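Students often ask why inverse folding is considered easier than folding. One informal answer: many sequences map to the same fold, so there is more than one right answer. In these notes we will look at a single instance of the problem. The structure comes first.
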């Protein structure tokens, strides 16, 4: 079963909330291979506190870095280097008979080291990509730049999840990018087990339909 990779147009746009909703809706496992920033806690611990189902397994991070910064900088501060091969080794030990939600750090062009970027990891994982966007001044440009990058890299992109509402802009971004709108999530002022469970319940059918091809292998 192919993994689902959650990325977005930048940082602070709600990837972890989307990952929580998707994990709950699909009763999927969750994995954040690179965690940069440990205060006030990790995204893995947040996901564990938000999902209600008993099927989800939270897989440990390959890299846990203290500094909240670009992963390559956070690693450098600890005299470490993020190796794609080490991440892939851990991925290959994760059972493939269950859905797996993988959350990236930052956007697709965040460097992991002096050679590799987050987008290279998505490609190596052969993951189905979901892009998260949020409405702010400049977000249309950032969304379309991200979509162009995905297309140039040949990534299997399922579509957009919008945090908060763009109104008409959602469909304009979908039309310009060529990637469909999977769903829109209202801005959750109270992020809790209850609100994540309710959002997952509303969107389960939509998400399963959008990801219907996730169990296959992308053709070239």
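Output (designed amino acids):
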């Amino acid at each position: 079963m192919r993994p689902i990779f959650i990325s977005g147009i930048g940082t602070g746009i709600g990837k972890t909330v989307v990952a929580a909703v998707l994990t709950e809706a699909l009763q999927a496992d969750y994995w954040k291979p690179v965690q940069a920033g440990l205060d006030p806690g990790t995204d893995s611990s947040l996901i564990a506190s938000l999902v209600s189902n008993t099927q989800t397994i939270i897989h440990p991070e390959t890299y846990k870095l203290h500094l909240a910064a670009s992963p390559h900088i956070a690693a450098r501060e600890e005299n470490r280097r993020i190796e794609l091969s080490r991440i892939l080794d851990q991925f290959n030990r994760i059972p493939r008979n269950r859905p797996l939600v993988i959350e990236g750090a930052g956007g697709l062009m965040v460097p992991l080291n002096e050679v590799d970027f987050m987008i290279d990891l998505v490609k190596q994982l052969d993951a189905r990509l979901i892009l998260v966007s949020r409405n702010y001044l400049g977000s249309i440009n950032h969304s379309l730049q991200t979509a162009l990058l995905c297309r140039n890299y040949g990534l299997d992109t399922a579509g957009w999840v919008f945090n908060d509402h763009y109104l008409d802009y959602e469909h304009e971004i979908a039309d310009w990018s060529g990637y469909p709108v999977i769903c829109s999530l209202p801005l959750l002022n109270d992020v809790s087990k209850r609100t994540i469970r309710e959002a997952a319940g509303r969107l389960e059918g939509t998400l399963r339909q959008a990801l219907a091809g996730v169990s296959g292998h992308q053709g070239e």
